[in-house]
Automatic annotation (TrEMBL):
Polar residues bias (residue ranges): 1-11
Source organism per UniProt: Macrostomum lignano
Keywords: Membrane, Secreted, Signal, Transmembrane, Transmembrane helix
Pfam families, per the entry: PIP49_C
Protein name (record): FAM69 protein-kinase domain-containing protein
Every FAM69 protein-kinase domain range: 241-414
GO cellular component: extracellular region
Superkingdom of this protein's organism: Eukaryota
Stated family: Belongs to the DIPK family.
InterPro entries: DIPK2A/B, FAM69_kinase_dom
Length: 437
């Protein structure tokens, strides 16, 4: 007489116990089913029996629980791995405006015209690396063109700015002091609410205060939307002040544009606490091991950039306070050099200086020179001093030994007391580098 599978499984389990007791192996059961598979089948049979015992109402409750669990975990996985952060208004911090960089570019974000690429297109990558605030290597694509998305400040830096604002507006004792309230109170209620008093000395950009500079920044900020009134609205001035206090890079990119010939990336716009700028190629540090001919070309371009920043026909001289090769990018096709980190740029309004001020300033203390000295001169060799110092330790390190002429020029240019003008030395270095090797 045939036995059922369940009875066969129970009999086999009994045989296994007997076998362990007397040490004599028992013959395999008649079904030929492995023990692990039998246990699984038993578990499924038990589960089916229990579900049938639940009845109709219990089955509905169980089904509903399973569906809700599936929906919850699906949304969790979708948020962590699928949903683009550029569509998330909370990730972009749009709700913080006007304590933000602006909202002129939000349409492109929320319509997925700007996205992160690579690993950072997935939200979980940002959560695993929350301290990363400048997405220089995380290139999105704006209408097919590569771009760079930046947040410009860490949460700790934003917290310091907020504490400073609350303290300056006598709101530090209030537990409800936030950035927007402090910005509102910081601005006066006059016709021109944002004045030099509000931004003077807050960072390198306004280290040398100038009303003409502030007016130029306001006009550039207003022209982000040509249909705006001729003067900024209060919310717009609050965003401008927030940007000036946190990181003035967007203000500099809007005012000194690449379209006017400045060696900076193009500024596309801002949404909440993110900005989008043009991608200008690989980091200059990638060329440290490039062939000599390429390094000579890039060194010449960097010196030309230093002169361009210093002596422009706009009435403004720009001085970089952080000469690091990582702050430059190289466009692969043309080998054009661009300054891509502009958070430490000093702007001097040379037209506002009195006529008795000496025209040229010679930086005399090498790396220990006081950067504030550039504020009082129409022309300074600050950029050339630090450009020469940077090149002799990076791209032209081996040239000091291989080419006595270039090495002598570089050493003199980077010295604290050069015998010749650094502008003259820069021209000599450029001419030497421009010769075919």
């Amino acid at each position: 007489m045939n036995v059922t599978r369940r009875q066969a499984a129970q009999r086999t389990d009994s045989d296994t116990i007997d076998e362990a007791a007397d040490g004599n192996p028992k013959p395999q059961d008649l079904t030929g089913t492995p023990a692990s598979l039998r246990h699984f089948e038993d578990a499924m049979l038990d589960a089916g029996t229990r579900i049938r015992r639940l009845g109709f109402k219990g089955g509905c409750v169980l089904l509903l629980s399973v569906m809700l669990s599936f929906a919850f975990y699906w949304h969790l996985i979708r948020y962590a791995l699928v949903t683009p952060h550029t569509e998330d208004v909370y990730f972009l911090r749009m709700e913080t405006c006007p304590a933000c960089y602006g909202n002129d570019f939000c349409y492109h974000f929320t319509n997925s015209e700007v996205t992160f690429t690579g690993a950072y297109q997935y939200p979980i990558a940002h959560q695993l690396n929350p301290s990363k605030h400048v997405f220089e290597g995380r290139q999105g694509r704006y209408k097919g063109a590569p771009v760079v998305i930046k947040s410009l400040a860490t949460p700790e830096q934003l917290e310091r700015v907020q504490r400073g604002l609350c303290k300056s507006t006598d709101l530090q004792e209030s537990h409800r002091c936030n950035m927007r309230d402090a910005l509102w109170k910081r601005l006066s209620l006059g016709e021109d609410t944002l004045t030099l008093y509000d931004v003077r000395g807050e960072n390198d950009f306004f280290r040398c205060p100038s009303q003409r500079l502030l007016d130029a920044v306001k006009e550039a900020f207003r022209l982000r939307d040509p249909e705006k009134p001729k003067r900024l609205l209060r919310n717009e001035e609050m965003s401008l002040l927030f940007t000036a206090l946190v990181n003035p890079e967007p203000l500099l990119l809007m005012t000194f544009t690449s379209e006017k010939g400045w060696p900076f990336p193009r500024y596309y716009g801002a949404c909440g606490r993110f900005i989008v700028v043009e991608h200008r190629g690989r980091s200059a540090t990638d060329y440290l091991t490039a062939p000599l001919s390429e390094r000579l070309l890039l060194s010449m371009r960097i010196l030309q950039l230093a002169i361009k920043l210093t002596a422009s026909d706009t009435g403004f001289s720009l001085y970089l306070n952080d000469w690091d090769l990582a702050n430059f990018a190289v466009y692969p096709d043309t080998r054009t050099v661009t300054l891509v980190d502009l958070s430490n740029v000093i702007v001097v309004d040379t037209l506002q200086l009195n006529s008795y001020v000496s025209r040229q300033h010679h930086t005399t203390n090498g790396s220990k020179a006081k950067v504030d000295e550039v504020c009082d001169h129409r022309l300074s060799d600050w950029n050339l001093l630090h450009a020469c110092s940077m090149l002799r330790l990076s791209l032209l390190n081996d040239q000091i030994a291989d080419s006595q002429q270039v090495g002598d020029y570089l050493n003199e240019c980077a010295s604290a007391q050069p015998k010749r003008s650094r502008f003259q030395l820069a021209k000599l270095i450029i001419d030497a580098l421009d010769k075919p090797i």
